[in-house]
Structures
1.
Amino acid sequence: MKAIQVGLLGIGVVGSGTYNVLSRNQQEIVRRAGREIRISMVADLNVERAKSLVGDDVQVVSDARAVIANPDIDIVIELIGGYGIAKTLVLEAIAAGKHVVTANKALLAVHGTEIFAAASARGVMVAFEAAVAGGIPIIKALREGLTANRIEWIAGIINGTTNFILSEMRDKNLDFEVVLKEAQRLGYAEADPTFDIEGVDAAHKATLMSAIAFGIPVQFDKAYVEGITKLSATDIRYAEQLGYRIKLLGITKKSSAGVELRVHPCLIPAKRLIANVEGAMNAVLVQGDAVGSTMYYGKGAGSEPTASAVIADLVDVTRLHTADPLNRVPHLAFQPHAMSDQSILPMDQVRTSYYLRLRVADETGVLARVTGILAQAGISIDAVLQREADDTSESTAPGEVAQTDVIILTHECLEADMNQAIALMQALPTVLGPITRIRKEELA
């Protein structure tokens, strides 16, 4: 049977890993796919470097459009990244009748609706397992393995950089800035880590999982996104004392009111498996009505783990290459005509529970005033701790009033109510610094 011809756009870390794994495991892949899958053309601006990676058997060009224009190419792998030229090339490949495999979560989270519609109209596939959680097959699990379930919620550690930073902050009792520099030195964080530490990368991935889980269009612009830059070692230490760990989670839930789509730091009970995911590893917890909780764990980045997902997509596309487009697995799991228009809830309409830390004057009546504000807002308190301020960055200077930390755990409430309560507490003259608010998820 004729080999499937693949054109690779960009042969960086993931591209070179894809070429190497495909070459090394070609025999096993042929047995699974039913025919050979061969990267026969590569486009990269650094032609000489690309040639040194793939040898003389692969045609290397500097112009990506030459790959798209080649009538022998069946599948185009897009590994350029970003929203700009990558979008143009993906749409041109679709228009040329090429199937597309991509690891570009940013592109699909922002422009996925347009790209999937174009692919459906042209009768080609866009596969993107590598776009979420690297080597973990979470897209296939949501789209196919759990297809009998009504997905209730998903919570995932889906950014290895932030998980590494939070693990180091907890293990070594260091603040964010110190650990970030170490993460950059070790190569876990980019020179410009903004997308990671501000939660944007995780939100791209959560957007895709939400669309697949609930059959809604991709709506990255409606996601609530909060990163880890304001977290301190003090809060991580207090959370540990309370039996929790802090993780950056991508969360999506469905309720009668709408769909939640949010990324932010969370307190998670230390006894949960996902709370014990350390370092640069990823994990995704999915709650289905029939199967209950399932968790998917593994490397979320790296050359060969991500290449594993790219090649899995190549095999899937190869198997379905000649199938009737109407009989293929839909891009977002649900048939295009059955997609839901259920809205994404604004963050102030989300219900969750909270960890609050207030740096207050160590005076009689302070705690009563704080808890009184919460009571008036209808917010129920789960636990209260009071600790002497012991971190040097906020310790009491000579002649100043003594300070103490008040830590409060609440039961579930509306975010809008909590926002109002925090504003009132912050205005108290005995509250001496910005109030720390971290959301809490039991994930039961």
2.
Amino acid sequence: MRIRRFRRAYLAAEYVALFFGGTTLYNAVLRGKPPIPALLVLATGVTVYLRRAKGFDRESLWRAEAFPGQARSMAVTAGANAVALTAATAVMRREDLFELPRRNPLIWLAVMVLYPALSVYPQELIFRSFLFHRYKPVFGEGPGMVAASAAAFGYVHIVFGSWFSVAASSVGGWLFAARYLRTRSLFTASVEHAAYGMLVFTIGLGRYFYHGAAPAARIQLRGNGTA
């Protein structure tokens, strides 16, 4: 029992250090730098770990057969959110509405093609497969795990320099984590994640989700208000 308690405490500390301490350090030292290289390195390490981990369901790394049963609810939710986000962008930032496809259609097309493979799936590996498996002794397998996944996923977006990025990603993280919890299908969670990401870059909110966004508004953790 004492060993089990010690392991839970150790894993809880590791979770905080990795997802919050590591992100804070990255934001302080490498802010403004493209996060994709670091993301791919972490995803590679996570893949090696999961393939060697005892008790990990390796089928969950894909399990595409779970997608058809979720497609309708995903489409309804994504459709409603697409209407709401597009309307909000049109009202609050009209000049940004559909900015990327209008001004840089080739870049927009490249994002639509590369984003799911280079960003979405690696993120899902880390924040869903790895986090769910590694920290199950701490958070269980229900709402606590979903909350832990959403919190870590949201916080890592401080590297984009906007609290909107953190808040929106926390909501998205909850949605993707809940989907993964229901399906144990990284493919299904990745499809949903990719759909929202492509929506964001299409309607004009992409400035909040790439490394060069809002340099003057970067989150300052020391509270001194200077850039």
3.
Amino acid sequence: MRLRAEYRIGPELKFLANLDMMNVIGRTLRRAAIPYALSEGFNPHIKLSLGTVLPVGLWGEKEYFDLELTMPVETASFIVAMNNAFPSAITIKNCIPIDNRTPSLMKVINSASYTFKLCSGGINLDSWREEFLSRKSLVVKSRGKKKDLDKDLRPGIFRIDVNNSQDFDIINMWVSSGETINVRYDELNDILMATGIDKQNIQDVYRSGNYIKHGAEFFSPLEQVN
């Protein structure tokens, strides 16, 4: 049996690295007495795979993992057992059984959304959004493997929503996270600075979702699994 789970990792653990997260989930599976499957060989490991790596320094609202089990488990029981054993900053929000032929998260997730929380009143975000999306190119220095090469983020920025309020302002950005163009959050940070957002006004940044993009629509990996 395979399960796909959606979980939240709060800001208290935003400096947890990907390998550390794998270890936390592994220890939680043992504490919760979940019948997880192990790989074969001299160094067996839990058959667990995460979605796209959550960058160190960010927390995540909708993260995902796939898990193989040795026997069937009710999803509701799995959620309760795991949440009772997890640290308080991690919560499984939903879970579904998936077919053994279902492609891995790394193969199907091709976009993500990042949320920037700003001090209120710093800039007219509606005007900023209109000007931002009207640009044909948005070039930054790459922060990935090919560091310092010019990288045009514009083809990989799909959608932007903004919200002004009395307490704080919000910028939500839906971007590509695939192999064709992978838009990193720190590159988004750079392009925000270059288009008029004051770095000092950014109070928080987090990944608000991971998605499977088909055409103009964005699906949760729990909704679109085939």
4.
Amino acid sequence: MYELNRLNYERARPLFRKLDVHLPLQAILAGNVDAPIYVDNPLHPQTALTWTGHRFYLAGTPGNTDLIAAARKIFLENFAMNAWKTGIDSYILYYPTEKWENFITAMLQHKYPIKSFRSYYAYKAVRRKWEEQLPAGFSIRPVDSALLSQKWKNPDFLTDELCSERESVQDFLAKSFGVCLVYGDQIVGWCLSEYNTGHRCEVGIATLEEFQHKGLATMLAYAFVEMARNRDFARIGWHCSSTNAGSAATALKAGFDKVEDYPVFIGWFDDTSNIARNGYFAHGRGEYAEALAYYEKSFLLGDVPDWVYWGAACDAALVGENEKALKYLGEAIDHGFNDLENIKNSKFLSGLHDTNGWDKILERLERES
């Protein structure tokens, strides 16, 4: 594949048409985001790929074996290495149609990407009077120099996000916009524009865990949309995992309509972490034997955190391998897993309750707690 000259990015635009809802692509094509585009033919491209941050995009027509090898090389040596160096540990791979899935499986052979689904929401014109709905003690303020000049208990919660897409805080203030939720001397939430291109932007939103499930994120979204409309942004997009019920509910309450669900592949650059995550997702699908196999494979690759041993214990118990389940439960405890109540009440471990080792596990936890 060939890196396309930035003066010729328009040649690749038709290939990305089916991915129009993904604004980072439009920002790349418009030159608002510094990112390479690789194509199979610089004059008449039929296949293209590009990336920004943790997002990797494939477009056009899937190619042959040689193209798969070229795309794999770019993914591993350019995208993955650069992302890893900047502290990004995982990726989302986007593609236009299911015809790409065999290509992706071959491109990421032995990397075990996980197929998942995300959802896209678009704003509909509904005016909300959010000011009257804010609880006492909270305020929503624009993200500007005045806000940032104040002393906050947790400034990094906001500034780290400001620099996640833009080069610096000042670059964000010059090119983007947003609002944040304030409570006392703490920033407890933010809603920021992403990939502003023409009259389009996307939404990035978060609240601190202890302030979630109180309707505050919806208030933030109301205020953000009002700011965006006042700045003549006609299309406001919202992406989230299809399993993220909280984000979906907030989008709908804030006046967004669901447009579509779309498939993606996700993965972690570290092989050990990625294999362990495959176990987690297999467990979620009810494929307990497969989940256990993934967990055990991750043990052979390197050190893993306590939750991996916990997951292996649960899945071993679910498939009736009680001795193995007790062994992994002990290793989970060795690695710091000490949630006695969770262990006692887990439905996944109920098959262990009549075994000789179960009481020993509980006695150990009670003794060490």
